[in-house]
Amino acid sequence: MSRRNNKEKAIEVALLMTSGVTIVALFLLCIFLFREGALLFGDHSLVSFITGTSWYPSSSPAKFGLLPLLAGSLIVTAGAIILSVPLGIAAAIYMAELADPRIAQILKPFVEILAGIPSVVYGFFGLIVVVPLLQDLLSLPTGQTALAGSIMLGMMALPTIISVAEDAINSVPLSLKEGSLALGSTHWQTIYRVILPAALSGISAAVMLGIGRAIGETMTVMMVTGNTAIIPGIPEGLFDPVRTMTATIALEMGEVPQGSEHFHALFAVGAVLFITTFIINLIADSVKKKYRLQEEA
């Protein structure tokens, strides 16, 4: 008995140390990111950085306006959400409630495989197939637009949304479904009046995870959204070429002198991206807790 207790205490200590290392690493990462980004604001004001509409790092004086990058990220992410959320939830409902079990068993591994495809493969597919198709169909000067980025990010977010939402739907107690059907409800009425409300916390988490995947993606948007070296203002919509915050960091960080204004500006962009994803995760967690409390009540 004593040996068993010692073994359990050793496991607890090991898990505690692992958690502590993770927290310390995240804390040090935050300090490094925000310290390097804050050094930009010795010569540039925070307000001009957040509200600036021009990103001219090579001009004299250099202009570091976050607004075009933030707008590009939000436009591409919003388009991806509009495309992926309805399709993802519909696919999850079909796989969990409507599909033949043999078909669902075939579809499930394919969805998991899609989630594991590298982002550069999605980007290459978008560049070769989606970009020329959009250019021809919509008669655009170039197919490398925010719409192409939204389509590709929507495709990338779909597996996450489908998988998590399907698990949430499958976790609804069978007694709720049977009770609804016993009271005379049809299968469709049971789905949208009983099953979906009961699984809403998991579905909300799936949507927020999909949003987090979209807004933090780098390689795909860098390949299909028409990145330009100079950004002369705020993109107006889905049919304009854009550059996102993640693509800007990836494209420019390898070429800037360490310790320069441009270097610190890219860290400031990274800090804004970190804060954005952190807020999304907080919202997802609060929504999940809210609906869980409602279910328990």
UniProtKB/TrEMBL annotation:
It holds the Pfam family BPD_transp_1. The keyword Nucleotide-binding does not apply. One of its GO terms (cellular component) is plasma membrane. The chain crosses the membrane at residues 12-34, 66-93, 113-134, 146-169, 190-215, 263-284. Coiled coil: none annotated. It is found in: Cell membrane. It is a multi-pass membrane protein. One of its GO terms (molecular function) is phosphate transmembrane transporter activity. Residues 70-284 form the ABC transmembrane type-1 domain. It comes from the Archaea. PROSITE patterns: ABC_TM1. Keywords: Cell membrane, Membrane, Phosphate transport, Transmembrane, Transmembrane helix, Transport. GO terms for biological process: phosphate ion transport. Belongs to the binding-protein-dependent transport system permease family. CysTW subfamily. Part of the binding-protein-dependent transport system for phosphate; probably responsible for the translocation of the substrate across the membrane. NCBIfam families: phosphate_pstC. This is Phosphate transport system permease protein. It comes from Methanococcoides seepicolus.
